[in-house]
Amino acid sequence: REPAQVQVVRMSSPMATPGSRRNAVRFDLQNDKEMDRLQFSRLILQKELGFLPAQLDYIFALPGRKTFEVVFTTNTFFEKCLRNFESLKTTRPQLANVGMVSLSQTEPKTITVLMFSEQVRMEDIKTWLQQRSTVIHGYEMRDEDGIRTGGRRFFVQLKRDLRTGEIQHLPPVIQLGAIRGHVFYPGQPKICHRCGSQQHLLAECHNIHCRNCDSKEHLTKNCPDPVKCNLCGESGHTFKTCPSSYANRV
C-alpha cells in the first residue's frame, strides 16, 4: 500500500508583520522590567491605560516575560490605546520602561468639514486634507431638497509618524485664507486650538505658538519669517495666490 499523503499546514506566529493584523499592538518591557501575563493585563492595560477586560480580545504572552501582543475588540479601543499610551507614557512611572508598536493599520475615517462659505472649493479642501492624510474620496453634503449645506464629507486614511508610529490626527480647525472651518471625525482627540497639545484645551493654554513657523518664541503676528500658505504649506505666498488652489486655476 502507498503511504497516505500528509498535508503540512504552517500556522502563523502571533508576531506577524506589522500592519497585517487588525486592532493589534505589541508591548515590550525594557531594561530589567518583567511581568507575567496577568500582571501585565491588570497593571499596564487595566490600571495604567484604563481598559476593561471586555475591551481586550486577546493577550498573547510571548516567551521571556517581556513581550506581549494585545488585540482589542474594536478599532475604537485600538486607537484609544495608541492615543492613551503616547499621552500617559511621560507621566506614569509604570509606563516609563514600556515600549509599544502598532501591528495594525488604522481604519479609514469619515471626516466632516464644515466651512460656511460658497468661496471655498471642494478641491481646495481635498488639497488641504491630502497634506495631512490619504484621501480616498469625498462629496458635498446636501439636504433633502438637494441644496448644499456647506458641509463636506471625506473618507481618509490617517498617516502615522514614521519615527514613533503614532497616528497623526487632523487639526480640528481648517483655515484657507481668511475663511475658517471645523473638522470632525470619530475618535478625534480633544486638543488645544492654539498650540496643539492634548494635555489641555484653549481656555487653559498659556503657551506662545506661531502658526506660521511653529515657533514657541513669538506669536503669529510677530513672525519674522515669510508668510506661509495655509493650503500647500509653502512660503512666499498666501492661499489667495497659491498655484495649488483650484480657485486660482479656473
Structural write-up:
The protein is an alpha+beta fold and 250 residues long. The protein has three helices and ten strands; from the N terminus they run βαββαββαβββββ. The protein has helices at 37-48, 75-88, 122-130; strands at 24-29, 56-61, 67-72, 98-102, 109-114, 133-142, 148-160, 167-168, 173-176, 179-184. The protein is globular. Residues 3-18 have low confidence and may be disordered. One of its GO terms (biological process) is activation of innate immune response. Keywords: Metal-binding, Zinc, Zinc-finger. InterPro entries: RBD_ZCCHC3_1st, RBD_ZCCHC3_2nd, ZCCHC3, Znf_CCHC, Znf_CCHC_sf.
Which features characterize this protein?
2 domains; 3 helices; single chain; about 250 residues; about 15% helix; alpha+beta; four-stranded antiparallel β-sheet
**Domain count:** 2
- The structure class reads alpha+beta
Largest sheet: 6 strands, antiparallel
CATH architecture of the largest domain: 2-Layer Sandwich
Could you say which overall geometry the principal axes of the C-alpha atoms support?
Answer: globular
